[in-house]
Design goal:
By secondary structure, this protein is an alpha+beta fold. Helix content is 46%, strand content 7%. The protein has 2 domains: 61-274, Cathepsin B, Chain A (Alpha-Beta Complex); 282-519, no CATH class. Strands 1-2-6-5-4-3 form a 6-stranded antiparallel β-sheet, sandwiched between helices. Keywords: Membrane, Transmembrane, Transmembrane helix.
Length: 520
């Protein structure tokens, strides 16, 4: 369960001890001296900072900028992270303290952030001041974390919890940073929440006169730092954790491209935020919801049984509600769990297209069930490679769109049977769907339960106040858990939900046609 915390703070400048010491206090060292990292702290307050002027310094790496996701990235070497810096033998969990020390250093030293624009940053070295502040914050944060853990163990020998909240980290850093406000959420998309939270901060009157705004992001047990610099109108993102092939990370984004930075943070820094939660199951996935809407729309306007029928209206309504409630999630294309759903939809529409081109042939329901099960449980590792994944997604999306257009403009099949034949057809179709003793019928026991839970979910989306009843919550949870088995017993390529409701609507359509021919 993700928790994001917003920290907006500014730091009091320390008064200079002498008149000639009003500029930034840096430890002047010889860049060629390899013992400079052993320089002692004279005052015991401030960590030594190296005034780097040569890129060949043994203390600070020379890092060139790269372009990825429309952002400027500086990826530090493998050993420059909170868990590996200085030959650290054990992993570090001091990310919250490191974030506070970084905010303190950036505020005290008033480091000038560079003006960066687009492709001109490609190959640009990372500003030495940012690297120095980042590395010093990692060193000081790890030291303060060890001291704070020693105090915890003295108070209680059974205290082994080594994570710190933002207030605890501020106290461990001697309260040099002041927290102004925070907000948190759970069971929400990190991408959407971060966008709203940052927009709220930038529009706040409390920090309207601040030239620089500091925000700490705490999610999934990891803390990162986001800084907005008003003079340069840019966002700087700092992550002290180690990554797959490199160490800590510094990222820049112009304020116009902030949405790209948010997607990058959610997909690369916190990939857990893209995993489906209890509320974000497969059937409310945005891509799945969109394709349900496409299939329902095609069936509503192109199928003779659905056009103008009550069943078609119900199907179109449920699909519209599902897509409307998940439309804000539709931009999420970082995950690849939508590919089986895309493949199922493509095959569903391909079967309809094949039946229309070859009316003499009919796809067997049992074969459709086998196809559905195989594709539904298809190993997702087959789509693990980015290039293969994107090519397959593009092919399926364009294939679904092409088939939808073809089915929409195609002429519907004409019903040439008599009234008695239509009555027998409707009796066979409608009654067999509601034959409860047959679990394999379209609307058997599990099919009915599935449709009922789906309608309940749609009602809850429209009227969330009903969730205040704990008993109703428990009943809905049980229904949803059992109704998932309906996917295994409904003869559908595209899961039990769409096909069961579509077949119900088809039964209503056949019944309406029979009533019209019989009595009118």
């Amino acid at each position: 369960m993700e928790i994001l915390r917003r920290l907006v703070g500014f730091v009091r400048r320390r008064k200079p001890r002498h008149e000639d010491d009003s500029r930034t206090q840096l430890l002047q060292t010889d860049p060629t001296d390899r013992n400079a990292e052993n320089a002692l702290r004279a005052d015991g307050e401030k960590p030594p900072c190296v005034d780097l002027r040569l890129p060949s310094s043994p203390l600070v790496p020379f890092v060139e900028a790269s372009q990825a996701h429309g952002l400027t990235l500086w990826s530090l070497p493998y050993d420059f992270s909170q868990s590996r810096l200085g030959g650290r033998p054990t992993p570090s969990t001091a990310c919250t303290l490191i974030s506070m020390k970084l905010v303190e250093s950036l505020g005290n030293e008033q480091v000038d952030f560079p003006h960066l624009r687009g492709i001109f940053t490609l190959g640009k070295p990372c500003p030495p001041s940012l690297l120095i502040m980042m590395l010093n914050a990692i060193v000081d944060g790890n030291v303060l974390h060890e001291k704070a853990m020693m105090k915890r163990r003295k108070r209680s020998p059974f205290t082994n919890y080594d994570c710190f909240t933002v207030p605890q980290a501020i106290r461990a850093c001697d309260n040099h940073v002041m927290e102004i406000d925070y907000t948190s959420c759970s069971n929400a998309l990190l991408r959407d929440f971060l966008t709203d939270a940052v927009r709220m901060v930038l529009n706040s009157t409390v920090v309207a006169e601040c030239s620089r705004i500091y925000m700490a992001l705490v999610a999934f047990g990891r803390t990162t730092t986001l800084v907005f610099d008003r003079p340069t109108r840019g966002f700087f993102f700092f992550d002290s954790h180690s990554h797959k092939e490199h160490g800590a990370l510094i990222c820049y984004s112009d304020h116009k491209d902030f949405h790209k930075l948010v997607v990058f943070i959610a997909a690369v820094i916190y990939p857990e935020s893209l995993r489906p939660t209890g509320k974000n199951n497969l059937m409310v996935h945005p891509v799945c919801a969109f394709l349900v809407f496409v299939v329902a729309s095609v069936a509503r306007f192109a199928n003779g049984f659905f056009r103008g029928s009550l069943g078609g209206t119900i199907v179109f309504y449920l699909a519209s509600v599902t897509f409307y409630c998940s439309r804000s999630d539709y931009a999420n294309v970082e995950g690849f769990k939508d590919l089986p759903v895309l493949l199922l939809t493509f095959l569903t529409m391909a079967v309809h297209f094949y039946d229309r081109q070859n009316p003499a042939l009919k796809v067997d329901d049992s074969r459709a069930v086998i196809y559905s099960l195989v594709i539904t449980f298809l190993p997702l590792e087959l789509f693990a490679y980015d290039d293969r994944r994107e090519v397959l997604r593009v092919f399926l999306v364009f294939g679904v769109i092409a088939l939808a257009i073809e089915l929409y403009f195609a002429e519907p099949k004409k019903v040439t049977c008599s009234a008695d034949e239509l009555y027998e057809l409707s009796e066979t179709s409608v009654y067999s769907m509601f034959y409860s003793s047959d679990p394999y019928s379209c609307l058997g026991r599990l099919g009915k339960l599935l449709c009922f839970s789906t309608v309940t979910k749609s009602a809850i989306m429209l009227f969330p106040a009903v969730l205040q009843s704990q008993l109703l919550l428990f009943v809905i949870y049980i229904l949803h858990s059992i109704s998932i088995l309906g996917f295994l017993f409904t003869p559908a390529l595209f899961g039990g939900f769409v096909q069961a409701v579509k077949l119900t609507g088809r039964g209503f359509g056949v019944a309406a046609q029979w009533i019209k021919l019989k009595f009118y």
